[in-house]
């Protein structure tokens, strides 16, 4: 039954995307070979090769061997991206050994939501994805490359890189990750310390000590937020070497996998990324998201990525996939384990194998391995200096973290869509206990995250309520994450109050135990009904049945006008530079893209 439904969902996406997909493939086919190195003028080529050492210059000017772009999001502000510092040289050296070349084509910006949470810089976060996509286009605009390597890990960076890569869909491409940091203190301990600080029971010094024991080294943060969901998603789309996502940085195996990516590109015929990524790859990414309880941010990013490839998906597709895909993993914030423990328990190889066994994954989707998803049930090992793949475990090493399908944590996925007379929203339920999945309570409307925090600190919120934060969408303020609300809402829930959140903003990829209806669409600034909610309105958030309703007379609701609210003028921290992005952003449900009008 589930297999039949997967086929139906896939067919529906194909039919919906037929025209846009054909147009996209026609565009990249037209560009493929339109301008090649050998066709460029001599002055153009001389500029391109001016910085290359002479012994390489002699070979590359003959145009016989392939030349690959390296696009990196390296900076040492982000722990996950610091390891990329030496990757370009490693890739270039390996390419040269295989009679090919590499050039560092360009860098992309990479910001950290963990640093900007709760501050003005967070309002740049979502649209940094579009800046990254445009940065890729600039890097690849020189028409001298035969393929590309993309180095990135975190929240907006990988979606931005992938959207940019798809705009150069005629080039074969490989994504190269850096891996998670080694485990620090447990995520559970970190969470408890944050809650104690929010309750005023410990000092700031104690909180900082805890945080620095958690975020303590190079590599991705170890919880299962957007960054690690990115890595899962890229593997499920077949753009990584198999099971390379969660190998720690600065290990011999990690360096060997970087070299292997370069070797693999030169020794194998990899399809251009625009042809490789089809409806099946996109749906596989969606399946991985549901099976592992991944980040809600991908209900925005995956929509944008798909549209960049001419594929039209929507939230109903996520909902349909969620209904047939069981939850196989519990990784913080959906459990106590971190991604290193997830990897040790069996990791992505185990998850892919379980899904393939039941026909719940498109095995015939194209991948950079050229053999469908079967390649992704194996794990890499470093044996005698070479990367060797062996079958992954077939039985979970820790059933509190990973389970077989016949013993899944739940029969459906970790993300659901809510619908009703307020609009449509996304909710992550994989960390929400069953007794908190249905909340009926009066609304309290807040005009900012800070207003909520102030009222919480003043002990004005010890009651049952649903917090409503409108005007947090892409058009209003760039759709910042509202993760600062998580600890106080969690405290109120632990105190026995029925609480929830409704907003057209985002929560972190680490959305937790409190029910949160997020990405409300249409957003308030686009005449969304969330702007009409007033203090005291009775709301029903029912995650079990997928509904979100205001419980008033329908005629009164239709006649009610939006409450007075003036969107503030946005200056400071560079936000004024993003005014154009906000003004032309598409809705959250269509990917919140500032250039969304071009992907129809």
Task: Summarize this structure as a short list of keywords or feature phrases.
600 residues; alpha/beta; Glucose Oxidase, domain 1; four-stranded parallel beta sheet; 22 helices
Give a description of the structure.
Belongs to the IlvD/Edd family. Strand 9 (438-445), helix 18 and strand 10 form a beta-alpha-beta unit. The longest helix has 30 residues, at 2-31. This protein starts with a helix and ends in a 17-residue tail after the last helix. An 8-stranded mixed sheet has the order 7-8-12-11-10-9-13-14. Strands 2-1-3-4 form a 4-stranded parallel sheet, sandwiched between helices. A two-stranded antiparallel ribbon has the order 5-6. It has 2 domains: 2-31 and 65-182 and 217-391, no CATH class; 415-594, Glucose Oxidase, domain 1. With 600 residues, the protein is of the alpha/beta class. Helices cover 38% and strands 13% of the residues.
